[in-house]
Specification:
Layout lengths: L3 E3 L18 E2 L49 H5 L1 E8 L14 E10 L3 E4 L7 E8 L6 E2 L1 E6 L4 E5 L23 E6 L8 E15 L4 E8 L11 E3 L5 E9 L8 E5 H14 L6 E2 L2 E5 L3 H6 L9 E6 L14 E5 L2 E2 L5 E3 L5 E3 L1 H5 L6 E8 L2 E8 L1 E2 L17 E4 L2 E5 L2 H8 L3 H4 L2 H9 L10 E6 L14 E6 L2 E2 L3 H10 L4 E6 L4 E5 H14 L6 E2 L14 H15 L4 H35 L26
Length: 633
């Protein structure tokens, strides 16, 4: 199955240009910066946008055909709602997690929606340190704040503190899901020039696709309009000048021409509603199970299904998911939310169309209940359970959500947490072919058995007298420490700190074992750290430190939305007054908490700088390969 490339940012990386196998999918999102280019670099593209749930009527000047500023058939006010996004990215060195890589720059696209907010792609601001935006026709770049990042859906929400920035900018409304052969216009700032670019095409396909950035299967719209590096984050518009989606990835030109993909408006609306409800992004749901198609008649008879019944077979239930409370292996799922499931795992979609029933799962929100009709041991039952966030069930994370990767150094033994960015750092973009089989098995098929479980691996052994004989060991999973199973890196640190015996014993996979003298290890650790310029022996984060974005006060965002609704007449002034007062009270509380949080963060940074995952460079991005019929965990 060909891989896709994210289209948002332009990142020209000379070392990786052309480095991908056939069928690779690119995300022309950023383009890597050229050496020595001060303000240029990865040109993250994509301008475009989605509006909130309420459509804002277009004013007559939008259709003024005599407007000299129009550069195409699109009205000037539509073009003016699209911005260019300039991002500075600082990537952690996952192989040496106490270090940072050289910062990189990218440009991409974004567009204004109601509430003085800007939509773009998540990969456009990946590992950001500074994000700036520039209006069409302006020479000034204005600092933007990242409100929320949704890695699974590849969407990021920005805002600008100065309300003057949004003066005379018309928010783009979100349209409905397009139909086949509907005309579509993609607008953004791709490579090849500095001014805004407009391309046209038609809708070629609407189906579930795997998003290259988040490795999650969500609804996607395929179009034949050109989507190039730098287009990421830009809007795709229909004939009514409504945004039907956000440009984000395309097939490699080695495989096909003019095959681009758009994040459709239902996915964008789900993201915006999630952030509005919870004050942050919580993610998309997982059914908590993996299933097998029942297209074989003998298998259906063996399971006791009637000739008129259809469904799918449950082959695995994730132990920490809500599904574990209601489903068992070898159950047959006949219906999901009263929608009959076909033997191929599809449900009716639109007229003469069917789609994977996973769409029904992704349309729900984290924490909501779902109802299934199942067949178990010849009995037909109705069960209900709570849906969980998809990434919370993955044993090996696709994205590193901490600003600095976790690590622990014990007398030269460097332990880290297994993540997909770590494998990419160690083995390159073809890590799915180069990494050890056992680590790949954990990545592809690992499941959590208890909360906060991690795969802890011995990344490398720093050569010293105390580690003589072990220096060749690397990238092996740590199974036990002093005979006790290791649950996560924090658990390992606790066990070592509390141990008062003579020898520390580490049991690795492939029956490898490491034994070091505890007192000598404690005595020599400082010298080893100093010799290799390692600032601290550990960086172990807690759940409260998982912040992925430089959060803006959600109270301010809510107040802006209310004010915009009041001006457009969609909300009564008294409601705005009450919500405004509540927002001001929240601001006061958050200001106090934010000040304390920043002081604590500065204290942490003096000892151990915090870092996050690497930005996308427009290269082919390997994806988790799942067999047909699997749901997203």
């Amino acid at each position: 199955m060909p891989k896709r490339r994210r289209d948002g940012c332009d990142l020209q990386d000379p070392q990786n240009a052309g480095s991908s196998g056939s069928g690779a999918v690119h995300s022309p999102g950023h383009s890597t910066p050229k050496t020595g280019g001060a303000g240029e670099g990865r040109s993250t593209a994509a301008a475009g946008g989605a509006a909130g749930a309420h459509r804002v009527p277009l004013s007559p000047p939008l259709f003024d055909a005599d407007d000299d500023e129009d550069e195409s058939h699109l009205p000037a006010l539509v073009l003016d709602s699209i911005v260019k996004v300039f991002s500075t990215h600082c990537t952690p060195n996952f192989s040496l997690p106490w270090q940072m890589r050289k910062q990189e720059y990218s440009t991409s696209s974004g567009f204004v929606i109601e509430g003085q907010r800007i939509l773009t792609n998540a990969h456009s601001v990946e590992n950001f340190t500074v994000v700036r935006v520039k209006k069409r026709g302006s020479a000034d770049k204005v600092t933007a704040r990242v409100v929320a990042i949704g890695d699974e859906c590849d969407i990021a929400l920005l805002t600008v503190d100065d309300a003057e920035f949004f003066r005379d900018m018309h928010p783009l409304p979100l349209g409905s899901l397009p139909h086949l052969q509907d005309r579509v216009t993609v607008v953004g700032y791709p490579i090849g020039g500095e001014s805004i670019s407009v391309t046209e095409g038609v809708v070629s396909r609407v189906e579930i696709q795997q998003y290259s950035h988040g490795a999650t299967e969500l609804l996607s719209v395929q179009i034949d309009a050109a989507i190039n590096p730098g287009n990421s984050g830009g809007p795709a518009l229909n004939a009514r000048l409504e945004c039907i989606g956000i440009a984000f990835q395309s097939l490699s030109t080695r495989e096909a021409e003019n095959v681009g993909y758009v994040i459709p408006s239902p996915v964008v609306n789900h993201f915006l509603t999630d952030v509005s409800r919870n004050g942050r992004y919580t993610g998309f749901c997982s059914s908590g199970l993996e299933w097998q198609a029942l297209e074989n008649a003998a298998l259906r008879r063996y399971l006791g299904m009637h000739a008129s019944e259809t469904g799918v077979l449950v082959r695995r239930v994730y132990p920490l998911s809500g599904a574990a409370t209601a489903l068992r292996k070898n159950d047959v799922v006949l219906e999901f939310e009263r929608n009959r499931i076909g033997n191929d795992g599809t449900v009716p979609f639109r007229r003469n169309e069917r789609i994977n029933f996973n769409l029904l799962v992704k349309n729900k929100y984290v924490g909501e209940q779902c109802t299934l009709r199942i067949l178990r041991d010849g009995k037909r039952l109705t069960v209900r359970y709570q849906l969980d966030e998809s990434s919370s069930l993955l044993l090996v994370p696709v994205h590193e959500k901490r600003r600095q990767p976790e690590y622990l150094v014990v007398a030269g033994l460097v332990f880290v947490v297994l993540t997909e960015p770590y494998l990419r750092s160690e083995y390159g973009e073809r890590f799915e072919f180069e990494a050890p089989v056992k680590l790949l098995n954990q990545l592809m098929h690992g499941e959590k058995r208890h909360v906060n479980e991690q795969v802890v691996i011995l990344s490398q052994v720093i050569h010293h007298d105390i580690t003589t004989g072990y220096q060749a060991l690397n990238n092996l999973q740590l199974l036990r420490c002093n005979g006790e199973e290791v649950r996560n890196l924090a658990h390992l640190a606790e066990m070592i700190d509390a141990f008062d015996g003579e020898f520390l014993r580490f049991a690795l996979e492939y029956e490898e074992i490491i034994v070091i003298a505890r007192e000598r290890a404690h005595r020599l650790s400082g010298d080893i750290l100093q010799q290799h310029f390692i600032p601290a022996d550990r960086s172990i984060c807690h759940e409260a430190e998982f912040a992925e974005v430089d959060e803006i006060s959600m109270a301010k965002v809510r107040r802006r939305v209310d004010q915009c609704k009041a001006m457009s007449g969609t909300a009564p002034p008294e409601d705005v007054t009450e919500s405004g007062r509540a927002a001001e009270e929240e601001d006061a509380d958050e200001a106090t908490m934010e000040g304390a949080g920043r002081a604590q963060q500065r204290g942490r940074q003096r000892g151990r700088p915090r870092r996050r995952q690497p930005p996308t460079r427009g290269r082919n991005r390997p994806r988790r390969q799942r067999t047909r019929g699997d749901t997203d965990a």
